[in-house]
Amino acid sequence: MRRRALISSIIALALAPALARAEVQLELFKRAPLADAARIGDFEQVQRLLVSGQSPNVSDYEDRPALMVAAMGGYLSVVTLLVANGARTDARDPAGNTALHLAAERGHDDVVAALVAAGARVDLENREGVTPLIYSARAGRLAVARRLIAARAPLDVQDYTGRTALGWAETNGHRNVADTLRRAGAKP
Questions:
Q1: What's the DSSP call for residue 129?
Q2: Burial group, residue 162, by CB count within 10 angstroms (0-12, 13-18, 19+)
Q3: CATH fold group of domain 2-183
Q4: Angle 142-150/109-117 helices, nearest 10 degrees?
Q5: Phi/psi zone of residue 162: left (φ > 0), alpha (ψ -120 to 50 degrees), beta?
Q6: pLDDT tens string 46-64
Q7: pTM of the shown model
Q8: For 142-151, what is each residue's pLDDT tens digit?
Q9: Would you list the domain boundaries of the chain?
Q10: What share of the chain is helix, strand, coil (3-state, %, to 5)?
């Protein structure tokens, strides 16, 4: 009997690392219903999940906060609902982006306005040194660039390539954004 218990213990110890890895892999594939609903802009489902007690700061399978996936899609009502229920406006994804970064890049001016009004920081850089203003200038999002400039976004931050918002606007041929940045005092 002792021998059988000893063998069982040895087998359990030998399998422990493999079981732990399997548990971590399963964790990667867990679904976050609130983040899924935010990704498709399902206001009613997000509201139901919040009322049932789900955190507004839950992340999706790519570790992007629900607020970020809603902002990426331009779902203003969902963004507003999440912020009103305590979503952190400056939560980051693994690349260091915030909801404001990705809303700015995609040109969702109304979402950018809501995030700025809720206190999202306009000066945060992601891991590549990119700010929301650089994203908007690089993509030629004039309305967003104007809004970020009005919110006192820093004009002359350089990203990992050494380019500023003005540099990106010029490189990508977004003359109207470049002119707006120059008028605001951006330097080449």
A1: S
A2: exposed
A3: 1.25.40
A4: 10
A5: left
A6: 999 999 999 999 999 999 9
A7: 0.84
A8: 999 999 999 9
A9: 2-183
A10: 60, 0, 40
